[in-house]
Amino acid sequence: MASIDEAAQAFPDRPGIEVGVDDGDTGQDAVCGVPAPGMEFETQLELKNFIEGFAKRTGCRIIIKFKTFAKASRSVELFGHEGAWARGDGYCNFKTTSQKADRSVKSSCTLNIPFTYDAGRRRYVIKGDRFCLSHNHLVEIPSPAATAIIVNYQRDLTPEQLSYIVNLGKDSLPFPKVTHMLSDQFPDCRIQKPLLHRLLRKGKLLAGVQPRS
């Protein structure tokens, strides 16, 4: 157990989206980094992915709360559809035992990441007002295995990962050794066996080795 200040942090307002360690939606392309005032995002999806990735890496369960534009026409004007986020904030959903039953209290934690849409810049911007990355409670830092992204499809691999796996197939290495090497090389990624077997087989074929049927 450690304070989030010793590792990293976490966080959102109106309809609510909950994100956290067990959320499997975060993609390989989710933005990595630590939130800071002034950071900009082109779309609400990019902002959401950033928050999800940050929450997952730091072991926090985050609620994203947001307000849409008061006038639907404004959302259509800016985004081409209704319901776009106008502003909101991210917050850790930790509550003390005494406050858990109080629905008027959304969180007992001090962590808060406010954001707004800047129409002039056409970007979502993290605001400095009320911004705080410090938790006032202990947070269990997740192990790399707990935060690893599960990959089932080749399209979700980076070119580097794909090339690395195919080359391992060319060497016809034992499968346990392959999985061990992959966990060392890409600790934040868990490639599922069916995909891994297909790519290793591809490597063997490229090397002129006839795979076992």
Protein model, in words:
By secondary structure, the protein is α+β, with helices and mostly antiparallel strands. It has two domains: 39-126, no CATH class; 144-207, no CATH class. It is built from six helices and ten strands; from the N terminus they run βββαβαββββαβααβα. The protein has a six-stranded antiparallel β-sheet with strand order 2-4-5-6-7-3. A two-stranded antiparallel ribbon has the order 1-8. The termini are far apart. Residues 1-31 have low confidence and may be disordered.
Biggest sheet layout: 6 strands, antiparallel
Radius of gyration: 21 Å
The oligomeric status of these chains comes to single chain
Helix residue percentage: 25-40%
Q: In terms of per-residue confidence, which ranges show pLDDT below 50 for 5 or more consecutive residues?
A: 1-31
How many separate helices? 6
Give the SSE string: EEEHEHEEEEHEHHEH
Find the structural class using helix and strand composition.
alpha+beta
Provide the spatial order of strands within the biggest beta sheet: 2-4-5-6-7-3
- Taking the alpha carbons of the first and last residues, their distance comes to 48 Å
Summarize the structure.
The chain is of the alpha+beta class and 213 residues long. It has six helices and ten strands; from the N terminus they run βββαβαββββαβααβα.
Give the key terms.
two-stranded antiparallel ribbon; 30% helix; 6-stranded antiparallel sheet; 2 domains; single chain; elongated; disordered N terminus; 6 helices; alpha+beta; 20% strand; 213 residues
Secondary structure: elements and pairs:
Elements: E1 2-3, E2 16-19, E3 40-41, H1 44-58, E4 62-68, H2 72-79, E5 85-92, E6 112-118, E7 123-126, E8 138-139, H3 144-147, E9 149-151, H4 159-170, H5 175-185, E10 189-191, H6 193-206
Parallel strand pairs: 9-10
Antiparallel strand pairs: 1-8, 2-4, 3-7, 4-5, 5-6, 6-7
